[in-house]
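User: Let's play a game. I give you a shape written as tokens, and you guess the letters that built it. Ready? Here's round one.
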């Protein structure tokens, strides 16, 4: 099971002063030293955190999976085709949201997403769709040609008590349904040092994509240590060896 570290909020901190620090590319370097198997950035239309310069630099030297999260717009598709990240994850995007609020409405936007997937895959790019733990959206993702899905774990992360058990069951069932549909299954959103073990125990999950909790911890203990601690928790849950 791989860990993709999202460094968006390192850039958020930089943009708070519109300055040059902290440097997202340096944060990516330290994350990789800490054991990150991939680096994720979300290039938003309004460039509120990660910008084109960051993407350019990361594409030049990143030695691990570079996952570009993006909306299915003409501008973003053109950027992805030109920059050739290792993975493209299509996500919903609203100007007013603080962070991604839910998965793609794949069934409702089937035609638009199918065209985006076709163009990206035509350029040789693997495509993942960030979706809710919903059987209909999983089936639609396979139908339009996605290579994988990232199951939205935010509902699970925000739930408590018996409700959490139900949300965990939804995630587990969705991962299994995705694999049965011929898709690789990732998971992410809202995962932290308390709840990650429950998701890391799902054997069929290809990778976890985690950002905010790692960056928040890195502010206190440093990026390399924060990533190592997350990897250790995942490894224990997955029955593997700590690194």
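Assistant: Ready! My guess for every position:
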């Amino acid at each position: 099971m791989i860990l993709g570290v999202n460094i968006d909020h390192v850039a958020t901190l930089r943009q708070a002063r519109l300055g040059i620090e902290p440097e997202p590319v340096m944060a990516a370097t330290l994350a990789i030293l800490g054991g990150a198997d991939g680096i994720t950035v979300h290039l938003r239309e309004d460039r509120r955190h990660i910008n084109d310069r960051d993407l350019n630099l990361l594409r030049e030297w990143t030695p691990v999976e570079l996952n570009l999260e993006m909306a299915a717009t003409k501008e973003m598709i053109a950027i992805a085709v030109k920059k050739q990240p290792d993975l493209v994850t299509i996500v919903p995007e609203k100007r007013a949201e603080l962070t991604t609020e839910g998965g793609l409405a794949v069934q409702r936007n089937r035609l638009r997403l199918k065209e985006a997937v076709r163009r990206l895959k035509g350029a040789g790019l693997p495509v993942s769709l960030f979706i809710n733990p919903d059987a209909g959206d999983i089936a639609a993702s396979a139908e339009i040609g996605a290579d994988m899905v990232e199951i939205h774990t935010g509902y699970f992360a925000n739930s408590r008590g018996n409700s959490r058990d139900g949300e965990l069951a939804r995630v587990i069932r969705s991962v299994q349904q995705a694999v049965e549909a011929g898709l690789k299954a990732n998971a992410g959103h809202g995962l932290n040092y308390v709840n990650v073990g429950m998701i890391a125990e799902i054997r069929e999950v290809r990778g976890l994509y985690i950002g905010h909790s790692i960056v928040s911890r890195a502010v206190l203990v440093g990026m390399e240590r924060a990533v190592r601690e997350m990897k250790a928790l995942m490894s224990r849950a997955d029955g593997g060896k700590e690194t």
